[in-house]
Design brief:
CATH topology of one domain: Alpha-Beta Plaits
Helix content: 25-40%
Largest sheet: 6 strands, antiparallel
CATH class of one domain: Alpha Beta
Radius of gyration: 66 Å
Number of strands: 6
Number of helices: 8
Oligomer: single chain
Structural class: alpha+beta
């Protein structure tokens, strides 16, 4: 039994040695499988193979209109052009400052100085007592291209002092008139409202003496200034910067009228 086992081991070792020495005969050969391309597909060439296979282009003669096509080497050396796709919101945001910088804003443009309006001077001149005096000055101002407007004003002027006894009942007024006559008082007058006029005086001192005389006789004499209304005339005019009248010229215009004054007023 042992002999058989030894023989089998020796046989196995011999077979293993023979197979090991002849292992190349039993290995399967690996062959690359190439898929055949359809006939309508052009074969892919490397860039070096393409340069060697293309013919050298002939130079373009001077005067020809068409330009020579670029060679493969020039195409390879040229930088690739990035394709532009649709602009994204981020691109629009980045371009916005550039567009804003190119267009000047209204605030960046220096403002032109506005012309200043001519200076205005408004005055009123008067009062003129007669229409003839004011017509003369209006004509003189018209020669200086100054338009003046006439204005009429009602003026209250003192016209003396009045000494009188105030109004009273009719019977009392007649009694006092008879008493004044008996006392030698003259120049009195009984009015419609039963007041007794004792005279109108232009001088205040004379009026006061008359009032004291009647008061000494026991009567309540009174003194009151009197006024009269009359119309006076004023001229309103406006002067501008290019037509201002000098002070010397105004003195010449108003020199003959000492009672006339010239006042500056606000221009409306």
């Amino acid at each position: 039994m042992k002999i058989i086992i030894l023989l089998l081991c020796a046989g196995n070792l011999a077979a293993f040695g023979w197979l090991y020495t002849h292992r190349a005969d039993y290995q399967p050969q690996q062959t690359a499988q190439v898929n055949q391309l359809p006939p309508n597909i052009e074969k892919l060439l490397l860039l070096s193979e393409r340069v060697e296979s293309e013919p050298v282009s002939t130079p373009v003669k001077q005067g020809q209109d068409k330009a020579a096509p670029a060679t493969a080497a020039e195409e390879s050396s040229a930088e690739p052009i990035a394709e532009t796709g649709p602009s994204t919101p981020e691109d629009q945001v980045d371009d916005a400052p550039t567009a804003a910088a190119a267009t000047p804003e209204p605030g960046d443009v220096p403002e032109q100085p506005q012309p200043q309006p001519p200076a205005r001077l408004c005055q009123t001149i008067g009062p003129f007592i007669t229409q003839a005096n004011i017509d003369t000055l209006v004509s003189e101002l018209k020669d200086l291209d100054i338009v003046a407007e006439q204005r009429t004003v009602q003026l209250q002027e003192p016209s003396g002092c009045w000494v009188y006894l105030p109004a009273m009942p009719n019977d009392e007024a007649r009694r006092i008139v008879d008493e004044l006559a008996d006392k030698g008082v003259k120049d009195y007058f009984l009015g419609r409202q039963n007041f007794i006029s004792l005279g109108i005086f232009s001088d205040l001192r004379t009026a006061e003496a008359r009032m004291q005389e009647i008061t000494a006789l026991g009567y309540d004499a009174r003194l009151e200034p009197r006024y009269q209304t009359r119309e006076v005339y004023w001229l309103d005019l406006e002067e501008q910067g290019d037509r201002l009248i000098s002070d010397n010229r105004w003195q010449a215009l108003l020199g003959q009228r000492a009672d006339i004054r010239r006042q500056t007023v606000a221009c409306e």
